[in-house]
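Progress against Task 2.4 (sequence-to-structure conversion) is shown through the following example record, which the project officer requested during the mid-term review.
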Amino acid sequence: RSKALALGKYYALIIGIDQYSGVWNPLVNAVNDARTIEKLLRSKYQFSYFKTLYNAEATRENIINQFLWLVENVKENDNVFIYYSGHGEFEKKLNKGYWVPVDAQTNSIAIYLSNSDIQTFLASIASKHTLMVSDACFSQVLSHNFHIVGIKQRV
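Structure tokens generated for the chain above:
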């Protein structure tokens, strides 16, 4: 007797930031790239839920709230796609990378979102599969040792 195939829902969190200010130079194509990804997912794939944060919406608080929303709502048969396009930063003394939200006005890491916090959120999402694409400087630091944390079928 064959088991019924349990298909989960598909969730997308898409973040794009061009309109930086303060010490951060504005970007040119981050939002355009993010909107292109959103359009592709909406037209070619069957995503059930979309959460988008563009420019002024992509504050540290809003990004964290969207990660928490995924942690609370995604179930074990569901699939998650996360896309970030914006500035990244690396603090050499701490050996730590960060996403830079739109409300970062200075070089202080206090307002950034650390890669280790992002890893914690990813590990807490109960999805079957999670794919994250980060188009930012120092985003490769995100994957450092991430495969070791015991996330089933996720990278």
